[in-house]
Amino acid sequence: LEPTLSRNLKYLSEELYDKFKKIQLESFKKSIRGRTKFYNDIIKNDNEIWAIGQHNFLNTPLLDFTESPYVAAYFAFADDSIKSDYRVVYGISKSNIVDNHNNNLEIFMPVSDYNNRLISQSALFVNFKIKKDLETLIVEKYKEQVDKKVKLVKIKIPSVQRDKCLKSLNRMNINHNTLFPDLYGAALYCNIGLNIQNY
User: Fold this and answer.
1) What is the mean pLDDT of residues 75-82?
2) How far is it, in rounded angstroms, from Cα 152 to Cα 150?
């Protein structure tokens, strides 16, 4: 689990990575001028800028998370092109990570209402301050601790359960139609329904 920016700049040193991260942010700030009515509200908040970029396919230091384990399960199973024996749902403890002052991770929820998908998905983000994957960061930070409070949970679900899982989640009104309240979501909802008969 690592953000697209660190995945695509894996070959760089930490110092060069920080430099390119700043270049990416400034470039995106310039590129979105005149393209969003929220520009003046968010331009001074880097997290808000990164969040807009994240939902528009920009390589960012963010990972998408949700406060709903059911939404997380839906995203784990929605893509039928994944060829793996298991689908994985990760959970992190906001309070245990924040309380322990993990300076390498920042958990935040955007406040600007530029993207109605965020509300539908109960979305929040984890901002990676350094170029490492989530499991490595958490293991390195907390391996010496004796409190044994859970920081990260990894749940593996057999991929053969995909149809059953998606049908059950649909009955709970968790599907592309509700998580993406736009034309994109409506189209994907129909596509998945076509492949999972009696969706």
Assistant:
1) 89
2) 6
- CB neighbour class for 53 (10 Å; exposed up to 12, middle 13-18, buried from 19): buried
Q: Where are the alpha helices (DSSP H) in 55-93?
A: 69-78
What's the CA gap between 157 and 70, in Å, rounded? 13
Q: Tell me the C-alpha to C-alpha distance, in Å, between residue 148 and each of 96, 100, 114, 142, 151.
A: 10, 12, 39, 9, 9
The total number of residues written for the chain in this structure: 199
Mind listing the pLDDT tens digit for each residue in 149-177?
777 889 999 999 999 999 999 999 998 88
Asked if 29 and 43 count as a contact pair (C-beta separation under 8 A), the reply is yes
Report d(CA 23, CA 13) in Å as an integer: 15
Rounded to an integer, what distance in angstroms lies between the CA atom of residue 123 and that of residue 130? 22
Separation in Å, CA 101 to CA 87, 98, 104, 123: 30, 5, 9, 22
